[in-house]
Each structure stands twice: as C-alpha cells, then as structure tokens.
Amino acid sequence: MLGSGIGAIVVILFGWLAQGDSERAWAAGSGFSPAVHAEYVAESTCQGCHAREFEAWQTSHHAHAMEVPGPDSVLGDFEDARFESDGVPYRFFRRDGGYFVETEGPEGDTAEFEVEYTFGWTPLQQYLVALDRGRLQALTVAWDTEAGEWFDLAAGNPVEPGDPTHWTGREYNWNFRCADCHSTDLRRNYSPATDSFATTFSVANVGCQACHGPAGGHVEWLADGSPDSVPDAGFVVSPGKDLATETCARCHSRRRPITRHFVAGDSFLDQYHPEMLRDGLYFPDGQIDDEVFVYGSFLQSRMHQRGVTCSDCHDPHSGELHADGNDVCTACHNETPPEKFATIKPLAYDSPTHHFHEAGKPGSFCVDCHMPSRTYMTVDPRRDHSFRVPRPDLFRRTGSPDACTGCHTDRDAAWAASAIVDWYGEERHREPHYGEALALGRKGAPGAAAALSGLAADAGEPAIVRATAVEMLGDFLDSRTVGPVALAGQDEDPLLRLAAVAAAGALPPDARVDIAGPLLDDPVRAVRIAAARALAAVPEETFLGARREAYLGAVDEYLASQLAVAERPETHLNLGIYWSERGDADKAEAAYLQSLALDPDYTPGMINLAELYRATGRIAEEAEILQRALDTGEADAAILHAAGLLRVRQKRYDEALELLRRAHEAQPGESRFGYVYAVALDSLGRPQAARKVRADALARNPYDVDLLTATLHQSLLDDDIHAARQLADRLSALRPDDAELQRLRERLRR
C-alpha cells in the first residue's frame, strides 16, 4: 500500500463516483434490477416446445461450460491424486461427497479448497474454488481430458502468491475473466467500496437464454394464448442475419465490455469494444497469434463478406459442424456452387487436382490449408476462421507463418511458395495482400503511411482490416494521412468510425474536433464513448451550443463504460489519464491511487501517478512512489527509466546513469530507453559507450526517428560523411516532407 494517506484519497474517488459527473455515469452503466433478473426461467422450461434444440444443446460445450461438481460433471482424477508443478504440490481428493484440492493458497500456506464448479469440458477441464470477498478463482492446474492427466497451464512460469498471475490473483479471477461467457444472465455485482463481489447468475452454464435473452415474457405469452397479451420482454426468438454472428461474437471474440451486463438482441458494438488486428494478437497478415477466439478472424473472411454466418457451418444449439470432414465445405465449394454464392469458382475442391495431397491424408482436408490451427492453454488447438488462401510468399515481407510449413516442418517458406507456383501459377504471388501494409505499419518502415492510407480507402477489403489500417495511421498523422482518417470517420461501417476516433487521438486537441465531434451522437455506443475519450483534452466550452448535450451524454457513457469493470486497475488508470487530460488533478490522483489499491505493484498506475506529481510540483511524492517501487527489488524497466529521469532532475547523475542502464538492459528492444541512456552517456562524457548503445538500439529499431537523428548528428560531429549520407537517406524516406532534412541531404552530396 502507499501509506496512511491512500484511504483518504480513495474516499475522494468514491466521492466523485457518487456525485456530479459520475452520478450519471453510474446510472448509465447500471443494469441490475431484480425485476429483470426474475424474467429468466429454468432452462428445462424450453424443452417442452423445443425438444430437438434442447437435446442438441445438452450435448454441447455450452451445456458443460460450468457445472456443479458431481460424478457426471467432474472429469479429473480426485481419488487422492498427487501432482507437482514448479515445486508446488497439489493433492486432489474427495470428502463427504465433495471435491477438494490441497495446495498453496493466497498467503503461501498449504490449505484445502473445495471445488465449487467445474469449468469447461474438453479438451481440458478447470476447477473453480472460492476465496474471500465473493471471489471464485480458476486453478491453473487443469485436467487434460485427452491424455487423462493433470497439467499446469502456467508451468515454467512460477510466481508467488500476491502476483496477479498466481492462481489466486486477478488474472485467474472467474468473476471478471470468465463468468459472463460461461454462465447465463451474469451480474458481477462488484462493490468498489469493499472490493468485493456478490456475483449472481440465473443459470450456471451457457443456456438457451444466454443467446435468446430472458424467456419469462415469452413463456407468459404462450400461456396466455393472446399474441397481444404481453411483450416478449428482452427475448430474441431468432437473431436476424445482422445479429446472428454478433450473438456468437459476444463471447467468441477478443473484446472489452463497455456495459455492466449483456443484453440479448442489442448490437455487439453497443456492448463491447472489439480489438483490431493488433500486434501481439494477430500476425501482420491477420492470422491468429494470441488467443483471439473467432470473431476478428471471421470478419476478415470472404465468407463473412458474402453473408455467411456461424450457423451456416455450425449447428447453433450443439455447436457441432453440420457435416463431417470436407463435406461441410463442399456443400458450397463444389462444381455447382449454390446460387447465393455464385462467386465461388466451380471446381472439384475435394480432389488431389486441387489440394495436391493424397485423399484422406494430412493436407487433403480443407481445414489443413485454409484454417490452420494454433494451440492455446497448452492442449487446446483452435482453428483460424479467416479461411485464407495459403500465401507462403508473404513470409519474406511480413514474417507471418504459413500453413504449408506448419505441416512440412523440415521445409521453409521459399520451398512452399515455389510449390504453390508450380501448382497454381505465378499469378498467385502477384495478388496484393493487406498484410504487407500492416507489416510496414508495425515496423514504422518507409512507405508505411502511404500503404496504410491506401488500405484504409480500399472499399474492397474487409472492414476490420481497413479499420486496423486507420487505427495504425495514428502513428503517422500528417497533412497527407489525416484525410483518410477523416474519411473513415464518415464511413457507414462503425468499425471504421471507431478506428478514426482512435487515430484522431494522436492529433493536437483542437484538431480532433472535426473528426471526433460529429461522432458524439453516433448511433453506436462504442463510437460515442471513443469520441468522448478523444476529446477529453478539448476545453468543454468548445461544445457549447448544439453539441453540448451530445458531448455530456457521450462523457457519461464513457465514464460508465470504464466503471462497468471497476474491479480492474486498468479501469482506474484510464480514468486517471482521462481526468489528467481534463485538467482535474484531484480526480486523476484518486483514480491512480485506486488502481494501486487494487494492485500495489501496478506499474502503469505508479508511473502515471509519479508523472502527475511531477507535473503538479509535488516532487517529494513523485520520489516517494518511485522509491517504493525500487525498494521491492522487482521494479520493471519502465519504473527504472522513470526513476532515472527523476535522478537526472535531482542532479544525482551517477545514480541516474545506473538506473537508465538497468532500464535499457531490462528491455533492450524499447527504443526510447536506449535513446535516453545514450543521451545520458554522452552528457557524462562517455561518447564511445553512447555510440555503442545507439548502434545496438538502432539495430533493433531501424526506423526509429530519434535514434536515426541522434546517430546522424554524431556522424556529422565525427565528420563521417559516408555514414551521414546513408543516415540522411534513411531519415528522408521516413520524413519526406522535412525540408531541412532535404537541404542537409543536398549538402552531403556535394
């Protein structure tokens, strides 16, 4: 904790939560109502009229998503089974009809925990146990249903109790991490005042009403017999085509909630903010990298663009495919495609003449090449749903993997690319692919801005791809790229508008108004709250007049979207940054302190709070919080760097240099740390060491403008004209509109 003063500051936070700006925020985000909650009925009620659907659902993973432990639901070995991982022992046993695990608890002592629920079905099953303050936690040790053995999802990464990634920590907290996608009518009911949950659900697993909404009104309507008797309150009989995929996306996507609980039938983007094709989640060409589930991949596919929905391939109640093997694909992809998919080229797809592999062997199945899988949670392979054509030729330009060498592990991408040319012709390699533009953008390489601008404007590409390009343009905004961002803000697809607002956040505050201002009353909630966030630094009086009500409403929705997940430290970090930009230091401080009350070692909270103290002249408090982080002995690179800069301002140069060195060596790939450390070395009369640090950092970050500029400056001081010419050329490719740089290049050529 931060000392006795933190309690008073947290009171400040909840003071503004209960008054003024936040009063509307809490109300807008609240959805808990016992009357609405009571509209849910027992799932067995549906069976009477929908026997076939109910029977199919009972075989699904949804039906087993979370269950009370018993002989039919527990798959793991609880017959006094022993297991050890990273030196921590586990014992699984039964007693008095219950299921128990004995292992290291939240305080580090060995303790017994009763299993409250099973979690998942196959290929692995986890187990939930109760801790204090209403928390259910998922054990990291799980049961491999295929191998029939215990294994540890966190093996090889031992952490101590108190760490967020320990099984007792927030990253394995069921209430936030898992619950709303494994249960029906989930209400987290988190209390910020007590940091506790009173979480409820109507049905433990994913039942009929998880997708269709509360059926109480529907049942009453049927019993009454009059079509006009009562409305089907919140009940969605059959999601229309526009909602069909969104219904699945609610859980099968990488997203963050922006409301307190899911409402069936409401638009996905009115309830969630989806992730774009971000680095770390997807490879540059859009293939799955981290565990992103399905939605972001499927939105990239031609199938989605042609109107295919999840239920065209999967039975919506059992979750199983409509056919086995290649049959589910060849129902449409054959010599006589269905009329509604007339764009499919008529071919014998399930034939060696198409896939060039022996029938029935790996490589002959459609999914092998068009839906390659990656394994998550150690034992769970998931298939990429972008249904892409294999492009091993892209490896050289994007670094993305390819399906061919995923199987042929003894070969490389060049071999695979050559084989595809032999089979399908040279034209396959000539087809442009959006992955090339996204790869340039991630690197910050020359040509990135133009490539991303072109991709953003290409109406033939999937909306999520174009939106990703728009969002990335935030790193390249200038007179040439602001136009495509502005146009995206007027696009009919909400993903484009959402991305435009995100990119506009990189503009000076006044320049954001033209893009984000008109979106304050956008029909989509995710867009409205993004607009409000982007305009935080713009003086409120700018919106006096016709836009004032829209502005205030969007601000309320933004605050509510954050407070919907008030149990997370990043929520309060976001609020702190927001209030800092609004110029309200007291609210910003309270929010940062609350992030640290939830996690005393939360680095972003410490960094931002220290910066707030610096900006408001509270240098002693800045020093105190950074020193507290250093005293733990486990400070990360960002803390070391911030503390080093503080030592520079304190003129404690030797200490500063040591801290900056440690930051650079702890995270050598972070260009800013290398750049600042080199500046410090130069300033303290160690130019040779500075050159070495800059060279190393530039090798890791070849397109970093600050490193290139500093290295160019050093080359000019050294009178190394050859090196200076090369560096000036590299910089010019990144900054073609820099007139001063162009004049320098001309002088160097003489």
UniProtKB/TrEMBL annotation:
Residue span, Doubled CXXCH motif domain: 309-336
Q: Which domain of life is it from?
A: Bacteria
Q: Which UniProt keywords apply?
A: Signal, TPR repeat
Q: Which InterPro entries match?
A: ARM-like, Cyt_c-552/4, Multihaem_cyt_sf, Multiheme_Cytochr_ET, Paired_CXXCH_1, TPR-like_helical_dom_sf, TPR_rpt
PROSITE patterns xrefs: TPR
Q: SMART domains attached here?
A: TPR
Tell me the leader sequence span.
none
The UniProt record lists the keyword Mitochondrion: no
The ranges of the TPR repeats are 569-602, 637-670
Q: Which residue intervals define the domain Cytochrome c-552/4 in the entry?
A: 45-67, 172-213
Q: What is this protein called?
A: Tetratricopeptide repeat protein
Query: Origin organism of this chain?
Result: Microbaculum marinum
